[in-house]
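To whoever is on call:

I kicked off a structure prediction for a single chain this morning and the downstream step that reads the tokens threw a length-mismatch warning. I double-checked the sequence; it's 24 residues and nothing unusual in it as far as I can see. Pasting both halves so you can look.
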Amino acid sequence: MDDQFFLRRADISDINALSQLYQK
């Protein structure tokens, strides 16, 4: 599964949470 594909289906709140995890 591509991360971009998941992010497109994810809610904005989920994207924000994932963004914080990826930045760490």
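Update from on-call: the warning came from a stale cache, not from the record. Cleared it. Sanity check on the structure: The mean pLDDT is 73.
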